[in-house]
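Researcher: I'd like a structural prediction for the single chain below. Treat it as a standalone chain; there are no partners to consider.
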Amino acid sequence: MNAGISIDLRIGQHVRHRDYKGKRVTGVVHSLSVDREQGLMVEIILDEPIVIDGDGERPINIHRQYAPAHEFQPFDDRDELIAELRLACEGLLSCAETGTTSLSAIRAGQAAIAKATGTGS
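Model: Treating it as a single chain, here is the predicted structure.
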């Protein structure tokens, strides 16, 4: 039995990758190349730079990333959506615990639900 990896990447595609200290980073595929030892490689231009503390000096900003293609996945906004839903739920729970009503917490919850169901922005 021969197992393989299926990769569907193209230049200009928005992708995500777990990188620096396990944080998810996103970017746009800039180039694809073949490395003799590592195989198919991808270079992306990051949406936001990875900032590395400069040990008392100015921080280092990394704007590009070069890694094996199998480490990248097409971008989707699931992590952002989960974080948004979590914050909305925490706001509503806080209101429930204190017995108060917060119009902003209710609106945040409605917006998160609308985004999750595809009926909002």
